[in-house]
Prior knowledge:
By secondary structure, this protein is mainly alpha-helical. It contains nine helices and two strands, in the order E-H-H-H-H-H-H-H-E-H-H. Mean pLDDT is about 80; it is low at about 180-185.
Amino acid sequence: MNDGSKKSRRRRSSSILYQEPQESIEHLxxxxxxxxxxxxxxxxKGAWAIHIVLIVALKIFFSxxxxxxxxxxxxxxNITYMFGSYLMFHWVRGIPFEFxxxxxxxxxxxxxxxxxxQFTPTKKxxxxxxxCLFLASTHYTRYxxxxxxxNVMALLGVVVPKLPSSHRLRxxxxxxxxxxxxxxxx
Length: 186
């Protein structure tokens, strides 16, 4: 029936969650050929300290704004750090450099770090920072239920994508299926 002159629409599942497939041999060899500059900086000297500096800077920034109480300043610090962390490590896929033939195009930064290995020292640190910030913000908001609910939702939004069960798991409701985003690359 299909004579090749018409492009047929490929059927896919209407599921919200889908698993990103493993890389092909070509992508694996491209990944091994050149170091990944996009994800290797997290193991460099001072890379861990920048998270603490950012949190302190955010706390100072929100504290000096007139009219913002200590409870709100801690919650805003928590939400802002969590949002930035999610955006940087889990939302953006690929790398900004064009020297590896698209070897990392389907991986977010968390999956690129340490060659995808779980529970490395860097990943343990980056998992513990949001948890410690949540504990501090919960303590300084005096365990208020409203602030606690907001802070725990922000924490879950950042910690769940870091878990091994979420490795290569995508939510197509938020970002769309990759085949829909790049229809010309089929």
